[in-house]
């Protein structure tokens, strides 16, 4: 009988449905994607010394369901003429610099509305050769 119970438990473990590990593409206008991108830009701006950055474009948003929802996306930001020393406003004029491309990974636990940023990295977009 013990062997039978052990066998049943092993088969149950082997054939149990695990959470999806496949990434699902998301639309760039998804409200959660936009919220995450804006939160990430605010995080970048909190590290700036001179001028605010502005969100230009969201790229490749995707999610996977695990112990909540994990998100990944890329976005492009560009520096503005609005100084960090003053409050940010949406009509800040964008500088002519090429900008930066950023990647963010974030997690939204089950039952929570808060999205916690795990990794955020930005790299300069190289200037085209002249």
From TrEMBL:
One Pfam family it belongs to: Cystatin
Swiss-Prot/TrEMBL keywords: Signal
Signal peptide: 1-16
Domain Cystatin, residue spans: 18-123
Molecular function terms from GO: cysteine-type endopeptidase inhibitor activity
Domain of life: Eukaryota
InterPro entries: Cystatin_dom, Cystatin_sf
Protein name per its UniProtKB record: Cystatin domain-containing protein
Taxonomic placement: Eukaryota, Metazoa, Ecdysozoa, Arthropoda, Chelicerata
């Amino acid at each position: 009988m013990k062997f039978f119970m052990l066998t049943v438990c092993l088969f149950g473990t082997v054939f149990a449905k695990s959470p999806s590990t496949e990434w699902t593409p998301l639309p760039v206008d998804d409200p959660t994607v936009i919220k995450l991108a804006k939160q990430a830009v605010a995080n970048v701006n909190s590290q700036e010394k001179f001028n605010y950055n502005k969100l230009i474009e969201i790229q490749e948003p995707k999610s996977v369901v695990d112990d909540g929802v994990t998100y990944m996306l890329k976005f492009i930001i560009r520096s503005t003429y609005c100084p960090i020393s003053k409050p940010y406003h949406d009509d800040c004029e964008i500088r002519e610099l090429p900008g930066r491309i950023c990647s963010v990974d974030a997690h939204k636990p089950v039952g929570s509305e808060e999205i916690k940023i795990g990794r955020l990295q930005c790299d300069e977009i190289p200037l085209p050769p002249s």
